[in-house]
Design goal:
Ubiquitin-like (UB roll), iron-sulfur cluster binding, two-stranded antiparallel ribbon, 7 strands, 2Fe-2S_ferredoxin-like_sf, globular, single chain, mainly beta, 82 residues, 5-stranded mixed sheet, oxidoreductase activity
Length: 82
């Protein structure tokens, strides 16, 4: 696996190609992936296997993508919904 660059909320982030997007967030010390739509509380990785939906982000314009199930590819653009 090689290091590649992705864009997260408009900022460049180095990530390992092929790793999960959640792993890239954790490696970049980004724990807040979205806010709860009702309470506004920050949400982040929880189950790590696609069951809880706490890690939903927008990837390349596609909303509702679970970061724990999505592999990093070069040039991907991610919005965390902050």
């Amino acid at each position: 696996m090689s290091v590649t660059r992705i864009t997260v909320d408009g900022e460049p982030v180095d990530a390992t190609a092929g790793s999960s997007l959640t792993a890239a967030f954790v490696a970049a010390r980004r724990w807040r992936l979205r806010d709860n739509p009702v309470s506004g509380e920050p949400r982040g990785p929880f189950c790590g296997m696609g069951v809880c939906f706490e890690c939903e982000v927008t990837v390349d314009g596609r909303p509702g993508v679970r970061a724990c199930l999505t592999r990093v590819v070069p040039g991907m653009t991610v919005e965390t919904g902050r």
